[in-house]
Amino acid sequence: MTNVRIKKPESGGQRLDAIVAEAQRDREKRAAGYRDRALKIFPHICARCGREFSGKRLRELTVHHKDHDHENNPPDGSNWELLCMYCHDMEHARFLDEYDGEAQDRESEPSSRYKPFAGLKDLLKDKK
Questions:
Q1: How far is CA 123 from the centre of its chain?
Q2: Overall domain count for the chain
Q3: Closest by Cα among 11, 87, 6, 70 to 35
Q4: What local confidence, expressed as pLDDT, does residue 21 receive?
Q5: pLDDT tens series, the chain, 128 aa
Q6: From the CB of residue 88, how many other CB atoms can be counted at a distance below 10 Å?
Q7: What is the Cα–Cα distance from 37 to 19, expressed in whole angstroms?
Q8: Cβ distance 79 to 73 under 8 Å?
Q9: Can you give the pLDDT at residue 57?
Q10: In this predicted structure, what is the pLDDT of residue 22?
Q11: 115: helix, strand or coil
Q12: How far is CA 8 from the centre of its chain?
């Protein structure tokens, strides 16, 4: 029999242990976070479109703060609703359209002053 020495990586094992410990701390922190609490309280169904989520698709379900204040996280979940990512995007777009102080009425004011077809009518008359 030969004596074979297996060398441990000097910093690799310690580095791996640190990564695993950090991942466990992050998981515990998330478990205490509002997303995990909301997923425990509410059924895994989008409150807008009614689609049901499970398994890997559960990550498509987001927690929406009804008052749009991410710091307002009551333990009973009264400020939350679960929305799929599509409905969540639509909700925030609607919120910005309604409440953005700088938003202008898009019907009354053109987005650009350049009018590429301004003289087209006159040009077409000349061709006839």
A1: 50
A2: 1
A3: 70
A4: 92
A5: 556 555 555 556 788 889 999 988 887 776 568 888 999 999 999 999 999 999 999 999 999 989 888 888 888 999 999 999 999 999 888 877 766 554 444 445 454 566 767 777 887 876 65
A6: 20
A7: 25
A8: yes
A9: 94
A10: 92
A11: coil
A12: 42
Among all chains, which residue has been given the structure tokens 């006839």?
Answer: 128
16 located within any domain: no
Query: Token pair for residue 90?
Result: 């639509």
Amino acid at residue number 12: G
Predicted local distance difference test score (pLDDT) of residue 128: 58
User: 46: Cβ–Cβ under 8 A, 6 or more apart, which residues?
Assistant: 53, 61, 82, 83, 84, 87
pLDDT for 105 equals 47
Single pTM value for the model = 0.54
Would you say residue 83 lies in a domain? yes
Is 6 within a domain?
no
Q: For 2-119, where are the alpha helices, taking DSSP H only?
A: 12-32, 34-41, 85-99
Residue in the structure block whose two tokens are 């679960």: 82
Residue 21 in any domain: the answer is no
What's the domain range around 53? 31-98
Q: Is 22 exposed, middle or buried (0-12, 13-18, 19+ CB in 10 A)?
A: exposed
The 8-class DSSP code of residue 59 comes to G
